[in-house]
């Protein structure tokens, strides 16, 4: 059978690590059993990832700066500039289809959907307002913060 059916396993020959994904084994081998290292020529920094060495060199020893074209934000890391632009200047929005929740981060929308709109699960409703949630302790937190008391007991 193949990995899609769950029977194929890839085992590390150096330790007890087992995965059903060949790429997972490759990453494990690179991280835990590879002798390849990238060393900074200016200090003692060492990493197994070429990308991290490049980031380190830019952040600590380089003169490269990434500047936002929309404001005066400046950083030495390209990924920090990308994150800044997405948060402060980005137009991508993820909208909940069940309520007015909006976020710039897709994983946050997924978490919101799991917590507030999980279909087929028990929903807990506040008796003082229209607040509804799938997690009882979150309702307790809401009631205490908004209404000053505890609504549900275990």
From TrEMBL:
A Gene Ontology molecular function term of the record: zinc ion binding
Protein's GO biological process: positive regulation of transcription by RNA polymerase II
Record carries keyword Methyltransferase: no
UniProt cross-references to PANTHER family, sorted A to Z: FI01116P-RELATED, ZINC FINGER PROTEIN
Full protein name: C2H2-type domain-containing protein
Keywords of this entry: Metal-binding, Repeat, Zinc, Zinc-finger
InterPro entries associated with the record: Zinc_finger/UBP_domain, Znf_C2H2_sf, Znf_C2H2_type
Signal peptide region: none
Residue ranges of every copy of the C2H2-type domain listed in the record: 10-37, 38-65, 66-93, 124-152
SUPFAM superfamilies the UniProt entry points to: beta-beta-alpha zinc fingers (SSF57667)
């Amino acid at each position: 059978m193949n990995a899609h059916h769950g029977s194929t396993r890839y085992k590390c020959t150096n330790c007890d690590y087992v995965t059903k994904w060949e790429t997972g084994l490759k990453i494990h081998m690179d991280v835990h059993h590879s002798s390849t290292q990238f060393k900074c020529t200016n200090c003692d920094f060492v990493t197994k990832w070429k990308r991290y060495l490049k980031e380190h060199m830019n952040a600590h020893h380089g003169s490269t700066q990434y500047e936002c074209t929309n404001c005066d934000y400046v950083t030495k890391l390209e990924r920090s500039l990308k994150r800044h632009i997405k948060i402060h200047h980005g137009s991508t929005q993820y909208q909940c289809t069940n309520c007015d929740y909006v976020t710039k981060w897709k994983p946050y929308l997924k978490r919101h959907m799991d917590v507030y709109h999980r279909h087929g699960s028990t929903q807990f409703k506040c008796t003082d307002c229209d607040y509804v949630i799938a997690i009882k302790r979150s309702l307790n937190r809401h009631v205490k913060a908004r209404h000053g008391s505890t609504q549900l007991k275990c």
